[in-house]
Amino acid sequence: MVLKNYRTLTATQNYTGAATTITTDLPRDFLIQRVLLNFNGTTILSGTSVLVTDALLKCVKAIRIKAVGEGSSRTIFDVSGQDLYYMNGFDNGLGFELDNTDTTAATHTQATGWVCDLRVNKLDPDDYSVSIPSYLLSTLQLEIEYDTSANGYGTNVSSQDFDMTITLIEGIPEASEDFSSNPLMTVLSKTLNGDASTGDENFDTFFQVGALIRRDFLCTESSAGVRQSTEINDYSITSGQIPLMSKIFFDANVNKDIMNYRTSEVWDGLALVEGYTMLDFANNRQPFIPTSAGLKIDGLSTVGYNVGDLVLTVDKNNVSSIIRRVQETVEG
After folding, report:
1. Is residue 181 part of a domain?
2. Would you say residue 287 lies in a domain?
3. pTM score, whole prediction
């Protein structure tokens, strides 16, 4: 039986409105299941501020977890603050605290948070099936890339001062339990740019193939970087000559998200979050499949696939769309 261990690290990261990357060494004692990040501080505005889309969230340009073991190095988690915040909202049915709408000339106390969730079953606090056995690694690091106040918040920012607090949710295996052969879950982002035409466009490098794909969190943005659900009309996914999803209307996929993820609020009009939807290859509420050999992680196996064997086709309403995804993959 795995015992739980919760701890907030004494080491914090400090953000002061400048573009910088800060690395924190994570302890290598137990099974790391989740990394909770709390971002608390102040923004001082010298005048009325024109906010960027997703202000404050964009101050965190990327959250990465990097592991080194047995002579190799892997980035196993790489997601922007903006994308991770909304993906957390899908998984948890409700977004974390987010105070990012202050525009008046004053000192504003603000906060938000994220979770790097390394579970197959996001509903099960005891799921350690893909947790990181950190005690087998020589290095495990949390690397956060921060952006400038102008890019991350808006205009007329005199200063910002935020602390990033890091909390680990871990499992302590008993002596008889062996997690050394745990499958590796990666959560990685990729951004592609559409061409200067409307209508169908194929993206044959959208997916990372070669392992089990559980899902892709899709974000569609205008050429100016404004996320919007009207950027594409529909999408299709083909595996070789086999259609897996055909001309799925974007709004219909959002309706599916509401039913499957049981979210408790609608954030942006009729969409859960404007410009976001989930491309699911697994059942998010029953992520394990019973087999004669035991439970198997659900998803689309792309073992043996080459780049271009799994293709996303989007019917674009606008030219030069920005198409971004966060893919959850399980190896091993």
Report:
1. no
2. yes
3. 0.94
